[in-house]
């Protein structure tokens, strides 16, 4: 018999472990999915073609490129570098560097001529890079990028209505469920409530549904699904904050009701490590988290599936999403070659190859509709959730949002008045934005989650 975990014993370390786990949102790829095949051995399940792109753009004479990417992406990057060299005759090298670390290093190495020609990062660092002139716009392939990728991915790769990135892969969260405890995932929060009220046994740490209550990033479906939003105009207008509008209040009232009906635990005792342990023990039927825990649950021997988060207030659940994209250095000696590589390494065949070798969830619409990916329950579920997500804003003002809204989640969960708490949080956000506008901080674009 598996030893049951004590909520009390876990709560002492919950804040530290949860913070580390949440950092993985921007640092980790979805490489935990099992690859669909083995391209290198010729056993690919896809009909992949790598030809010259339809463009008049040609590499500069003698061009060679340096690419920065994370360790987890190496299998894909090495394969796509070889394909690009075979097609264009341009040598490409990769240097391992985490996506969270690239912009900081780039600020120093770019002007010195030591930086990569093509870097990889997510939208929470885009505003800083674009406003500082560190990267070039995606101009040559703008029309193709806009038409081929999901709109939320294009939004994530844009800043001030200008497209900079070449989207590569999706990062968001969805609902894992234990098939031995619940055979069919609920479609609505009302069904979650009904199941939990017959399944829960708090004395045995047994719960029907858990999510990271104290963290706004993971609790966002209770705001975004019912008409709330962070900033207006697709996350680009910080003067328009929709975190305390009528829809946000409606969704957060449902959120607050779950304390008594679904998860009778204080906010301080709900964190990523607790959920992960209890789900891995088979004590939790449904667990909302990110794809970076897939391998953890497989190793625990859980018979799990993944589904979109149940509808909130009668509306499809809307999560926050991150999108990793290629970006071309403004300091590259070979901008033509760099743009060609960024496009070549993010098109349909490249994204299918990336899925095949690392399990990355595509942003490319045709790639995502491939029969192999659609048959993959885990990847297709994350893609479906991504398709109805809101892109986390890329503007620097996003740095003023996380702390007040994290605090608001805790207060509301623990019984404070929804409207009063949200109004106060929005005021704190506006005050912080105003203060930062007068005295901007160097790392103001870095999200706290």
UniProtKB/TrEMBL annotation:
Main localisation: membrane
Cellular compartment(s): Cell membrane
Keywords: Cell membrane, Lipoprotein, Membrane, Signal, Sugar transport, Transport
SUPFAM superfamilies, per the entry: Periplasmic binding protein-like II
Signal peptide: 1-32
UniProt membrane topology term: Lipid-anchor
Lineage: superkingdom: Bacteria
Coiled-coil zones: none
Keyword Lipoprotein appears in the UniProt entry: yes
The keyword NADP belongs to this UniProt entry's keyword annotation: no
PROSITE patterns named among the record's database cross-references: PROKAR_LIPOPROTEIN
Gene3D superfamilies: Periplasmic binding protein-like II (3.40.190.10)
Family membership noted in the UniProt record: Belongs to the bacterial solute-binding protein 1 family.
Protein's name according to its UniProt entry: Maltodextrin-binding protein
Species whose genome carries this gene: Paenibacillus oenotherae
